[in-house]
Write a structure and sequence with these properties.
The complex is a heterodimer of chains A (about 425) and B (about 160). Helices cover about 40% and strands about 10% of the residues of chain A. Chain A contains 19 helices and nine strands. In chain A, strands 6-5-9-7-8 form a five-stranded mixed sheet, with helices on one face. A four-stranded parallel sheet of chain A has the order 3-2-1-4, sandwiched between helices. The two termini of chain A are about 35 Å apart. In chain A, about 55% of the residues are buried. By secondary structure, chain B is an alpha+beta fold. In chain B, β3 and β4 form a beta hairpin. In chain B, α2 packs antiparallel against α3 and α3 crosses α4. The chains are: A alpha/beta (about 425), B alpha+beta (about 160). Chains A and B meet through β5, β9 and α14 of A and α2 and α5 of B.
């Protein structure tokens, strides 16, 4: 499985303690950084490591960090983002519960790199037990001198508080999250100065996914090249948490080299398909990515190889569907999710997604017509004109359904019913 | 009206934060816990504590999934209907819960104990189908397991409140 960066202290029954974390080299990177490195040296190492954001967008982390100008005003903030609410995504929950101090060390290192004073750990309501765990371990870190005033006797002071969300998917989007913390309605914000210049309370703010931040201690301990060398793909870096769910034998969260082929993830740690189930498709990175059909089964799960294949890595949340799962039904479920979670701020999303939902519902009910297909395609394309990335993400499954599984859509229309609810799809198609 | 002790604790919490509006969600949770839901009275009291207008707070209270503007039961069930739970819900968890409790989605059982709310992915896809009850997670649900969970909660509640 290769070297583990993030889950090496994983235990099935409880989180690693601070002593267990220290015994595995924990907090060495922080000690080295605050006592011997300048903040810009930390940024440089992260930049050299090729680390890219694991929250979905894949933006180079070092470049994001260097977006905080040296002359920027204080206080500066770090906002570790654990607000994963996309179907199929649960890696941050596993990570926080496996090794909370790894996450804390990553956050403090990011704070040191941009000279931040305060961290705000944003946690979704269904992870309340994790919020309590983080609060407890923050106190442990504080007592051990890794957090608070003059960390490890250096000039650097930084502390973290936990911010509880009251639950909406859009809060996972960085600008919406900043609004949520400020007690405003969490709408995304487009344009204007970048958050690394003007974010929370108009001060420089770094919003990073916790998996991204948790890679940083390794980079500083072992060097950027070592981190790069962990990946399997040509331009990839590090390892990746892949969460596998759906029709596999062992659903779960697995750390593998970045760029591991999909087939190796499914047939390896995920234990292969359930008995009697045959792989039909998967969503490679959560609900806002499109269907990956069997022709991509051996594609490397990394940003660039997937982009080349017309897919997106997203959060690396792999949802596996078998031949007996109706993909019109899946798409309908996904669009229901996005319709419910749309903040309603802009028209394409507010009006367009319910329209898509209606068309899909009618197709699934056996009331579909051929003319619905160009309408679906057109409505899904309109989502590119929405205010934020939520709506284009919602449209991804529709685009891919029409691109790779048109036969399934057409069978719904021609048979005037869902073939999966009436004896399964036609024999010829199953034998393909 | 909020008890004096709770009011003072929240006032202190708000004052101690450099940016009082950061406490909006915490205050709403605390006040909601006291009243059982975000009643109009709770909303006005929360707004007043935070120095906001009731309308400003209403904008938030109605946006968030875990703030309830209508009365809810003693146990709030967030039944996940995300794609993975849906895939494993041959008899959908949501449908089963509603039938079992004889309510429609969003409704509260006659005994006032259970409210069922639909919930987008709750982040336990590896245990699908799953649900939360008062924030606590239950996975690998089957109709029989749901029956057991509901029964256990009923018994525990009756033991706690014998005269009910």
């Amino acid at each position: 499985m290769g070297e583990l960066v993030l889950l090496k202290n994983y235990r099935p029954d409880r989180p690693a303690t601070i002593d267990e974390y220290r015994r595995s080299g924990g907090y060495e990177a922080l000690t080295k950084a605050v006592l011997t490195l300048k903040p810009n040296e930390v940024v440089k190492q992260v930049k050299d490591s090729g680390l890219r954001g694991r929250g979905g967008a894949g933006f180079p982390t070092g470049i994001k960090w260097s977006g905080v100008p040296e002359t920027a005003p204080f206080p500066r903030y770090v906002v570790p983002n654990t607000d994963e609410m996309e179907p199929g995504t649960f890696k941050d929950r596993v990570l926080v519960n496996a090794d909370p101090h790894l996450v804390i060390e990553g956050i403090v290192l990011a704070a040191y790199a941009i000279s931040a004073q305060r961290g705000i750990f944003f946690v979704r309501p269904s992870y309340e037990m994790d919020a309590e765990l983080i609060e407890r371990e923050l106190e442990v870190a504080r007592n051990a001198g890794y957090l608070g005033d003059r960390i490890l006797g250096s000039e650097f002071s930084f502390d973290i508080t936990v911010h509880r969300s009251a639950g909406r998917y859009i809060c996972g989007e960085a600008t919406a999250q900043i609004n949520a913390i400020q007690g405003k309605r969490p709408h995304p914000v487009k344009g204007g100065p970048h958050m690394t210049e003007e974010g929370l309370w108009k001060r420089p703010t770094l919003v990073n996914n916790v998996e991204t931040l948790s890679c940083v201690p390794y980079i500083l301990r072992h060097g950027p090249d070592c981190f790069k060398g962990l990946a399997k793909s040509e331009k990839g870096a590090g390892t990746k948490l892949y969460t596998v769910s759906g029709k596999v034998c062992r659903p779960g969260c697995y750390e593998m080299p970045m760029g591991t082929p999909l087939s190796e993830i499914i047939e390896g740690p995920a234990g292969g398909m359930l008995p009697g189930a045959e792989f039909k498709a998967c969503l490679p990175g959560g609900a806002s990515t499109g269907f990956m059909s069997k022709e991509f089964y051996h594609t490397q799960m990394d940003f660039d190889p997937l982009k080349k294949a017309g897919q997106r890595l997203g959060t690396g949340a792999i949802i596996v569907f078998d031949r007996d799962t109706c993909l019109v039904g899946v798409t309908l479920n996904l669009i229901q999710f996005f319709v419910r979670e749309s903040c309603g701020f802009c028209t394409p999303c507010r009006e367009g997604l319910p329209f898509v939902l209606d068309l899909l519902q009618r197709i699934e009910n056996g009331e579909g017509e051929e003319s619905f297909i160009p309408m679906l395609r057109e409505m899904a394309s309109f989502m590119d004109h929405a205010y934020c990335a939520f709506a284009p993400g919602a449209a991804a499954s529709v685009h891919h359904l029409l691109k790779y599984f048109m036969d399934e859509v057409q069978e719904h229309i021609s048979r005037k019913q869902c073939p999966f609810k009436s004896g399964g799809p036609s024999v010829e198609k199953r034998e393909e | 009206m909020l008890p004096k002790e709770l009011k003072e604790r929240l006032q202190k919490q708000i004052e101690e934060n450099e940016h009082p509006r950061e406490e909006v969600v915490n205050v709403m949770y605390a006040v909601q816990n006291h009243y059982g839901y975000m009643s109009d009275e709770a909303l006005c009291e929360s707004a007043s504590l935070l120095g906001l207008t009731p309308l400003e707070l209403e904008e938030l209270a109605t946006f968030y999934d875990f703030i309830y503007r209508e009365p809810v039961g003693r146990f709030v069930i967030h039944a996940c209907d995300g794609a993975v739970c849906w895939m494993f819900g041959e008899v959908s968890v949501v449908d089963y819960l509603c039938r079992k409790l004889n309510i429609n989605m969003g409704g509260t059982s006659k005994d006032g104990l259970f409210t069922v709310l639909p919930s987008v992915c709750i982040g336990y896809c590896d245990y699908a189908p799953a649900m939360l009850i008062n924030g606590e997670f239950y996975g690998h649900l089957t109709p029989a397991r749901i029956d057991d969970i509901l029964e256990k909660l009923r018994i525990e509640h009756c033991t706690l409140v014998p005269d009910r």
